[in-house]
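Z., the sequence and structure:
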Amino acid sequence: MSGSLGRAAAALLRWGRGAGGGGLRSPGVRAAGSGGGGGGGSAERLDAMVKKDKVVVFLKGTPEQPQCGFSNAVVQILRLHGVSDYAAYNVLDDPQLRQGIKDYSNWPTIPQVYLNGEFVGGCDILLQMHQNGDLVEELKKLGIRSALVDEKEDQDSK
């Protein structure tokens, strides 16, 4: 992670902790788990998982209790944008899912974010998209209005 990207991620993480970004489950967030039905890492199952919801996140822990800073940053970015309706899969619950999603996406790290069934990237990519405004546009394509657009319009009208 580059220096400025690392500093931005650290600032975002500090903001999330200070703003009460923990404990309460946001409406619509589904801690989907790993399903427990075996075959957690099969390509067919993973394909169905990433395409089932508009926004899907594979993370370490849950949105309410992320188990790594990068997973926490992804959750906080989604919160900033007001994205509350998404599926979250805890890869720590299922080693097959953890390895399977890495193989499926050909991406070596967790968290992983999917929008409309398409792999977006991990924390660094999502943070970059947040910073340059691309995330607002991608969410718009999904029919999700970013809360940051409303916030900016409120500020502009003052």
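The chain has seven helices and five strands. The beta strands are 30-31, 55-59, 87-90, 112-115, 118-121.

Let me know what you think.
H.
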